[in-house]
Amino acid sequence: MFQAAMQAELHDAFQKSPFDKLSDGAAADVLPKALTALADWAAAQQRVRLVRTVTAEGIRFPHIAAAYDAALTGRIIAPFKALLDAWIDRGQIDRHDSEHSARQLVAMIMGQVQQHAMLNGSKLTREQLVTCARAGADLFLGGHAGTDQQAV
What we know:
The chain is mainly alpha-helical. The chain has helices at residues 2-13, 27-43, 45-57, 62-89, 98-120, 126-144.
């Protein structure tokens, strides 16, 4: 019963990607918006509860942890990598391992907002989510902005 409930919860939690409504554009304009959408998505109580449960029960139910990782990869990291690849192709950011960057940025943003929620029992405010996202975008663009781009 636990396994069926977790499969349903995973399906529901990852049904929508935070990037589904995001239109492509210049990296300096879109990246802060994309990371804000990710932060808001990750901070939802459903996703915080899910990551808490997967973390606690991953040893006993490794296939649930694997399913969570696959959903995260397919619905969050892959679409984010596609944005990075588009910016690389247009010369807006330097050529680099975009999958690695996508994983790092996702982990950084999700980790910050979900850890806050799990340890403090509260969601960050909208302003705090935007600040977190902008800091992540600035950090990334500071290291990867193409020659014709400025950091946000």
